[in-house]
Amino acid sequence: QITTLINHKDKPKRSDKTLQAIQRVGQAVNLAVGRFVTVGEAIANENHELKEEMSVACIEARRAGETIAQLTDVASLDHPESDSHITIFTDKTGVVKAARLLLSSVTKVLVLADRIVIKQIITSRNKVLATMEQLEKVSSFQEFVQIFSQFGNEMVEFAHLTGDRQNDLKDEKKKARMAASRAVLEKCTMMLLTASKTCLRHPDCESARINKDGVFHRMRLALEQVIEIVTDSRSNGENEMAPISIYSGIKEFKNKVEGLRENLYFLSKENLSTMLEVILEHTEDFTDSAYTSHEHREHILELSKQAKMELEQLVSVWMQAQNQKTKDLMEDLEVAILKTCQCMNELKREVHSAATSLAADLLKYHTDHMVLKALKITGVEGNLEAVAEYTCKLSEQKEQLVEMCRLLRHVSGTEPLEITCIHAEDTFQVTGPQIISAAETLALHPSSKIAKENLEVFCEAWESQLSDMSLLLREINDVFEGRRGEKRVYLSLPRPGKHNANLKALKPVKLDTEEQAKIAKLGLELHLLTSDVDSETEKWEDQENEIVQHGQGMSSMAYSMYLFTRGEGLLKTTQDLFHQAEIFATEGTKLASALHALSDQVHDDDKPLLLLEAEKLISMCKQLQVTAKASAQGKSATFTKVDACILKTRNVMTLLCQLLPLCCKLLRKNKTGNGCLKPAPPWKEDRIRTGTNARTPERRVETFGIKSLENHITNMTFLESK
């Protein structure tokens, strides 16, 4: 809005419509500033140490907003130039000054508010650490129950604060690190509960103490990492830079090589040679690995040798071109650049194949969890010799999985996925020994229900990480094959542009920059709706439910259509978009059929409402299909059709946001004891109110599922009373 005011053209003739528009913009800015400042002042009143600074910044912002409103108060003026009243037309520099003051003061308020948020997170972390110290020292069940109840509440508060912070982070690398740390805290909270209970039940057991100490140590490290991310610092001044991956090394190397087309002198041949040496050193992680196949090893060694030769040829031509820039030499240089880049691409493809094929084989081999099952059985039997045998097998499995994570990191393709691989490696490294100590404790105390429960918790963490690795492997493959936008597209859906023979005859059309700008707001609304639908589907216990499946599919397709409005994603042309809209409508019709099936299961009182919503959905999907199939000739007509398809898709998604909670509510009502909603999904995105202003949009935060902890506390109280 401010940019609109600053950039408006001073025309000799100004219509009433123009004057009214300018006044509306000025008033809108002033109102927005007023709402913003009200929140800032409320924050100032709650935080006395920053009250003075915050109040000054708020006063400046309010003053600037009022100035802008005064300067744009032009609608009632017939002849602004002859009037003594100063307006945007007589004093444009005044608007510029007010805008600068406004942006400066708003930035100051945001920075101060950010400092307060950081302080809140640090304070919350300190509370958690203090309570953890108390938990380590307790010697009775009763005392432990009381303190753990307090600890659970403090962890919930910490989860809310860090969840908000994670959502606010712009740096994808930091966001991934924060997610990894919070995942550790979520899993370790349950581990801490069972490990502490086991230690209290068997105070003289060394393996139980080792098991508990490992959990406390890991939680402290995770808490410290969260604070490092929040404060953008490193403890003891250390520089925690992960070693460069082969993918990122090849990408940087190719950029330098291709840069020679523009400038022959911007780097030295030594720099280029050093970069290649570093990449080839990293390929030794593959060639030296006992788990790399002989075929992959030979291909990697062969391509490494070829890369050195191609670079030597490139450097030779490059040096000649620096001395004598002839046409023939420049053509030779172009050939050398292409051959070098092609060789690096082949090397990248080979290491990707080696890493992902190993991962696929290992995950398939370990999917039955035979070693974990054997440890549970032999532990309950008290068979120490058999437990020792299976712990050796688990250690071997751990080494395989750790090596898999290291190799996958090299080919992950993005920094967030690299961090996820590092987190997975750490999880296997730590959880393996913890399972072993838990199994040894159970073998020493085979009749202990608490020791058995403790082993179950650690085994579940291992199985969960293996499951996460399957998803991670799929994401890495998506990146490599160019299928990944900002959000994963469901692979089971028909791909846009395929399955339709008629598309070949149509001329592909893309939206230009101006058209993208026009449709941006509608696209953003669609994006927000996909987030809402995803939030609703995540709340269902039964993720295999037909309604959930269709809802997730529709959300994924709607997200692809949103990316199209930004000129991104898999939908490259308007025909891709129209085809996607048809598939989206078909998926919506299938969802309506599922709703009809559900109506047969619900009570008569609820049936009419559900059928009414299903009919609405069918009608909307039919309208969308008609629009998507209608012919459009010419640029203007095509854009109108695009706009209509996005609008109708948005309407369907709006209805879907209402349908999903309704269906879940009806299922829960009609299937008592088999509810479809989780009581509180652990660290999943949830919705809470974010202030006293009723108009404030809801924000997403993640929270702990504390219900399960409360159940454990209830059980502990019962045990203590016994």
UniProtKB/TrEMBL annotation:
Q: Which domain of life is it from?
A: Eukaryota
Its BP terms in the Gene Ontology are: cell adhesion; Rho protein signal transduction
The family database entries (InterPro entries) matched by this protein are listed as:
Alpha-catenin/vinculin-like_sf, CTNNAL1, Vinculin/catenin
Alphabetically sorted, this entry's keywords are: Cytoplasm
Which GO molecular function entries does the Swiss-Prot or TrEMBL record give?
Answer: actin filament binding
Principal localization reads: cytoplasm
Return the similarity comment. Belongs to the vinculin/alpha-catenin family.
List the protein's name. Alpha-catulin
